[in-house]
Every structure is written in structure tokens, then in C-alpha cells.
Design a protein that fits this description.
Layout lengths: L56 H12 L3 H8 L9 H15 L8 E5 L10 E10 L2 E11 L7 H13 L8 H10 L3 H15 L11
Parallel strand pairs: 1-3
Antiparallel strand pairs: 2-3
Bound molecules: zinc ion.
């Protein structure tokens, strides 16, 4: 139903100024994962790189050089020219269920999937996955809800997929450990690349005067 997202990492692209980054992109430290609570990261040196704290200093410096040169937005647009077409909650539900049915058929049921304009990407996370357990009759009923921050309504499919994959993986793996990321990579081999690029976009959006790159 949905075409393959964006441009695969490592694909030859004459305008790919970022190629130098990619050999050194390493997975987020498992303890941090997507949860972005920054209270303990007060270093002024890193304040402009708050979405990239899980990556090496070297990589952060490369990104800073791009932002200083005003080129981060252009680079992202060249790498991902098109926005996805998942515009409302209904389409988002279908998109997520399509992925779930392909990769984790025997996983827990997902009751709700929605864009959430109140979900603060900084304060909480990129997406949110809630599990509500309650006893109904003699059975313990568990409800799963997946919420996606509405900033990702207008992004390349690669970013939406990264978040969907991340939240779906939590249906089976609670913590950001090896098994969790293995499942993410099963659903999307470019998972780590997409997460990095998505974080680059959030970094771009935080720059003074920055505009959304894929507005409808
Ligand atoms: Zn997570």
C-alpha cells in the first residue's frame, strides 16, 4: 500500500552531502532510546544538539558545522524530497496496522493509533505507546494505544515509519535493549539511519527562523 520510504541509506546520490556522516552513525545508546528527558543534560555545549545527545561528539560536530553553514534543511530535503500521504488518524491507523500485520502478527492488539498535537517531542518522546491493563470479568484486558506527535504528519515516510516501527516493537519488547532494536531493524533495515535523520529534522526545526520542510 505504501511505497518504500525515502532513499535507502548508502544509495548513491550526487547531492548527498551527508554521505560522510553515515559510516559513523551508531545506534542510540540503549538506555536513552527515544525518551528525551533532558533535565540531566545541562551542558551548554550540547544545548543546540539536544536531539543528538546519544550520538558521538564527532557526529554532533559535523551536524553543527552544517547548521552553522545553514545547510541542514537543504540536505534533508534533498535526501527526502517527498512527504508521505498519511494525513489523518484513519490513514495512520491503517499504516501502522499494515506494518503490524506484516511483522508482528501474534503481538498484542492495538486499540488506537492517532496523531497527537499535545505530545511534546522534547518533553516526552517522539511517539508514545501506552498500555492500560484492567480486569474485565475474569480476564485481564490490555489496551494498547500508539500516539504519534503531529509534527510527523508532514514529514517523509521514512520518519513516520521509524516511529511506527519503534512503537510497534514495544508491543513485544518493553525496554530499549538489543532485542528491541533487532525487532526494529527487522521491520525497517534502515531504522537507525531514519532515526538519526529524523533527529536532524528536529534539530533543524529548533534553529532560529526555521520552517517546516514538508508542509502540505
Ligand atoms: Zn521507546
Amino acid at each position: 500500500m505504501f511505497g518504500s520510504p525515502g532513499m535507502p541509506a548508502g544509495m548513491d546520490h550526487p547531492l548527498d552531502m551527508t554521505r560522510a556522516f553515515y559510516p559513523s552513525v551508531t545506534p542510540m545508546r540503549s538506555s536513552r532510546g527515544l525518551a528525551l528527558t533532558h533535565t540531566s543534560h545541562g551542558s551548554p555545549k550540547s544545548s543546540d544538539m539536544k536531539y543528538l545527545l546519544g550520538y558521538s561528539d564527532e557526529l554532533q560536530n559535523k551536524v553543527r558545522a552544517l547548521t552553522d553553514a545553514g545547510k541542514l534543511g537543504d540536505m534533508l530535503q534533498q535526501r527526502y524530497p517527498d512527504a508521505h500521504g498519511v494525513r489523518n488518524d484513519r490513514a495512520l491507523y491503517a499504516y501502522v496496522m499494515d506494518l503490524k500485520n506484516t511483522y508482528i502478527r501474534n503481538g498484542a492488539q492495538v486499540n488506537k493509533v492517532a496523531f497527537d498535537s499535545k505530545l511534546q517531542v522534547i518533553a516526552h518522546a517522539l511517539g508514545q505507546h501506552t498500555t492500560i491493563s484492567r480486569v474485565q470479568g475474569s480476564k485481564l484486558k490490555t489496551k494498547h494505544e500508539i500516539r504519534v506527535a503531529s509534527v510527523f504528519r508532514e514529514t517523509p515516510e521514512a520518519f513516520l515509519k521509524m516511529i511506527a516501527v519503534h512503537e510497534l516493537a514495544h508491543l513485544k519488547e518493553k525496554h530499549h535493549d538489543k532485542a528491541f532494536y533487532k525487532l526494529c531493524e527487522l521491520m525497517e533495515p534502515n531504522y537507525h539511519q531514519y532515526e538519526f535523520d529524523l533527529r536532524l529534522y528536529l534539530t533543524h526545526l529548533d534553529l532560529p527562523g526555521a520552517k517546516a520542510l514538508w508542509t502540505a
